[in-house]
């Protein structure tokens, strides 16, 4: 009752979502008072909004949550240090350009303290709109191959372009399209970060890595070296490699694919590619990637493994995928999406190389495929 009063009693400014197909949707302005634009994407997860909003793979995107109420447990406190162990956050700041929700709860009831979703968005300069018919909007995104949008809160000013490097490429009257530019410099660590010295060391190529990858490695007694995307991989001494998730088009990553081919694949050490990392590793192996219609972003993506044909529920956030008919003869299909048959994972026939399109680190989402991390660590 108290919560309902809090939602209903609050007066919101108006805001407009202007879409690139000419449609305009009106709602309540939430979060920061700034105008942003980005690629329209949707996620059907019922929770995990703080993990999603801080996932660097959402850079340049306006995220529509299709679940009817977002913000209901607040945002846990961010405690950096201690090897990025602060659960609920997958990077140090919000990476989505903005969010669209049907209902928002403006409060915080989290065992880890924290703030409300709205206060968190305000403190980070991230706007949003509530009171939108997200079912209608999701259908529109599904039906249009490319949909961009602009969040315009009443009387707001334009977003500061210094927030992320890639934003400087866009004119104010243009829709931000994250697939047009190499986004690696906007999300990758600038300096090498060493976490948890241990006898086995994993080099993580940071393409916008979610912190849970590092949490899982540290939790499995691995040392971790988080590397800038543009490091000289030929000089790295490690027992295995993880090529991380990240935003944008895998083909738009400068010379990263070439360097993975030359210095990572050739080292013959165990490799695990995750999401963007899977796409980069596949490109380095000679396979091709394509753009899916609206991608997979949810906690309930079913995948089948081969040759066992086991089914798993997976957490996903991607728009690009590896083309099945381009898989090289020395690689095998390891996972396939049970809904649309798209490639969900590859394994090398003889070498300890593997990669998955979904997120074994979840956060948020089901942990059904966390055994992939155990398998990788077992190979070191
Ligand atoms: N989560 C990710 O790593 C996303 C990979 C890539 N940016 C895609 O959209 O397909």
Q: Could you provide a short overview of the structure?
A:
The chain has 380 residues and is α/β, with parallel strands linked by helices.
CATH topology assignment of the largest domain = Rossmann fold
Overall pLDDT, averaged?
95
Order of helices and strands: HEEEHEEEEHEHEEHEEHEEHEHEEEEEH
Distance N to C terminus: 54 Å
Strand order of the largest sheet: 11-13-12-14-15-20-19-18-16-17
CATH superfamily caption of the largest domain = Class I glutamine amidotransferase (GATase) domain
> What is the CATH architecture annotation of the largest domain?
3-Layer(aba) Sandwich
Oligomerization state of this entry?
A: single chain
Low-pLDDT segments: none
The chain-level structural class is alpha/beta
Largest sheet: 10 strands, mixed
Shape from CA axes? globular
Number of domains: 2
Q: What small molecules accompany the polymer chains?
A: glutamine
Radius of gyration: 20 Å
